[in-house]
Write a sequence for this structure.
């Protein structure tokens, strides 16, 4: 099931980029990000109430609150940068660079989460990096 959800995530992310590039035309990138964020907030809270998960909010630990807040700040910064980059550049160049987050995530997961970094991971990172360079040059 995780694979199907991850694949759907990739499809929706691709649609996000194309829809954003069209929608951001003539709109401040910060305003566009704020509009997108409001829609995401409404959708996320809608899912919370639809699945009756709201009661779990009182059980969230302080550590989780801190890291979820930091994650939210990171997401916001990422979206602000991404929308400005989309506004200034071509989606076909911005998106591959944005997807270097895969390589950065693997490295950070190795350093901070002590996840395995195998030869396969290294080869994948090199190929993603090389592929990104080929696509943007």
């Amino acid at each position: 099931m995780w694979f199907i959800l991850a694949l759907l995530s990739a499809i929706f992310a691709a649609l996000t980029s194309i829809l954003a590039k069209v929608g951001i035309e003539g709109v401040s990138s910060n305003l566009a990000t704020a509009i997108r964020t409001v829609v995401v907030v409404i959708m996320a809270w809608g899912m919370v109430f639809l699945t009756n998960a709201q009661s779990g909010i009182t059980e969230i630990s302080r550590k989780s609150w801190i890291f979820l807040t930091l994650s939210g700040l990171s997401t916001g910064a990422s979206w602000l940068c991404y929308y400005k980059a989309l506004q200034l550049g071509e989606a076909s160049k911005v998106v591959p660079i944005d997807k270097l987050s895969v390589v950065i995530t693997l490295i950070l997961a190795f350093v901070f989460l002590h996840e395995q970094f195998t030869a396969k991971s290294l080869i994948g990172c090199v190929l993603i990096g090389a592929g990104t360079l080929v696509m943007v040059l």
